[in-house]
């Protein structure tokens, strides 16, 4: 089998995983189910990164999203959900409107994509992105990188301040 | 259908974005809305990485890393706000939490 066929098979597998898990995330009535389906959505996206040759980003996606944000979301559900845990879904009308809005956005994006970037040819295999990415992060993009880490620190301190109990 | 081109990845990104929009509108639970926002940020990241690959330019990947950092910030602060919302209103259904201050 040629590499292209293997790539296509992996891509369509990941795309199917993305579509199914995304549908569960959006339409499930239980927020815990939605959260666990989000795990598979995020893993499918990490698979896309790996398929695109972005090795560092694929690992970062798994570590930060699956290991960090998903656990944070589950803690959020644990701390805020009254029993039984149900995910309120809007009235039928809002619901249909939401689906219609989503379909409209998707159609619009697909028209744009097909108009501008239809059939961009594949590029040759590339090397690991790690070294070049490190040079960029600590060279050309040093200031945005450091600023992002400062933002992260400020956000974490702010979040800790917000949730502290003020019964002293 | 194959070989896989840039269009395929952009279509996956567009699908992810549209589902995020649906989640943001249809969900009434604040955590559900937060999940929708995470989907939207992921859609943007898929597009950034796909363009970076097909134009052979790593700037897009650097931008994707910064988006991931900011998504982590956003999730932390949003969950803190949601927990405060729960303490104040006893629920995280956004329809019932419509007052700024009583």
Q: What fraction, in percent, of the residue positions of chain A are helical?
A: over 70%
> How is the biggest beta sheet of chain B arranged?
none
H/E element sequence of chain A: HHHHHH
Q: How many extended strands of chain A?
A: 0
Number of domains of chain A: 1
What is the rounded Rg of chain A? 20 Å
- Give the largest interface pair and sizes: A-B, 87 and 74 residues
Distance between the termini of chain B: 58 Å
| Poorly predicted parts of chain B | none
Tell me what the CATH architecture of chain A is.
Up-down Bundle
Q: In CATH terms, what is the fold-level topology of chain A?
A: Four Helix Bundle (Hemerythrin (Met), subunit A)
**Straight-line N-to-C gap of chain A:** 68 Å
Beta content of chain B: under 5%
Q: Flag low-confidence runs of chain A.
A: none
Instruction: Tell me the name of the CATH class of chain B.
Output: Mainly Alpha
Q: How many alpha or pi helices of chain A?
A: 6
| CATH topology name of chain B | Helix Hairpins
Describe the structure.
The complex is a heterodimer of chains A (168) and B (102). Chain A has 168 residues and is an all-alpha fold. Chain A contains six helices and no strands. The model of chain A has no long low-confidence stretch (mean pLDDT 84). Chain B is an all-alpha fold. Chain B has helices at 6-26, 30-54, 59-89. Chain B is elongated and about 55 Å long. At the A-B interface, helix 1, helix 2, helix 3, helix 4 and helix 5 of A face helix 1, helix 2 and helix 3 of B.
């Amino acid at each position: 089998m040629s590499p292209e066929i293997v790539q296509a098979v992996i891509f369509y597998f990941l795309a199917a995983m993305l579509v199914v898990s995304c549908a569960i995330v959006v339409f499930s009535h239980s927020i815990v189910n939605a959260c666990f389906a989000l795990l598979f959505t995020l893993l499918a996206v990490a698979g896309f990164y790996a398929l695109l040759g972005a090795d560092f980003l694929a690992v970062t996606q798994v570590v930060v999203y699956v290991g960090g944000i998903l656990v944070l979301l589950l803690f959020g559900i644990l701390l805020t959900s009254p029993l039984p845990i149900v995910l309120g879904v809007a009235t039928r009308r809002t619901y249909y409107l939401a689906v219609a809005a989503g379909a409209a956005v998707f159609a619009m994006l697909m028209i744009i994509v097909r108009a501008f970037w239809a059939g961009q040819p594949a590029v040759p295999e590339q090397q690991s992105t790690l070294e070049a990415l490190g040079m960029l992060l600590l060279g050309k993009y040093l200031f945005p990188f450091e600023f992002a880490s400062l933002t992260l620190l400020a956000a974490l301190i702010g979040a800790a301040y917000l949730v502290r109990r003020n019964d002293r | 259908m194959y070989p896989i081109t840039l269009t395929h990845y952009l279509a996956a990104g567009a699908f992810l974005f549209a589902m995020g929009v649906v989640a943001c509108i249809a969900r009434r639970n604040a955590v559900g809305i937060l999940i929708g926002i995470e989907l939207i940020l992921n859609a943007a990241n898929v597009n950034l990485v796909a363009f970076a690959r097909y134009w052979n330019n790593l700037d897009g990947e650097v931008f994707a890393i910064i988006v991931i950092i900011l998504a982590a910030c956003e999730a932390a602060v949003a969950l803190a706000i949601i927990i405060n919302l729960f303490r104040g209103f006893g629920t995280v259904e956004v329809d019932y939490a419509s007052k700024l201050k009583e």
